[in-house]
From TrEMBL:
It comes from Fontibacillus panacisegetis. It comes from the Bacteria. This is Z-ring formation inhibitor MciZ.
Amino acid sequence: MMKSYVRMNSIHFQGKAWQIKMLLSQWQKEAGPTAKVIDVIHSRYKK
């Protein structure tokens, strides 16, 4: 089971490598190929 922890300035993943790779690929498709990691973190952070 994969878990992700999103904070204001970081993301932590726990899971199998293939799960993390799939999630990051999905986020890249949503954000676009030129998006920066920090922008993705901020768009996913919910206070």
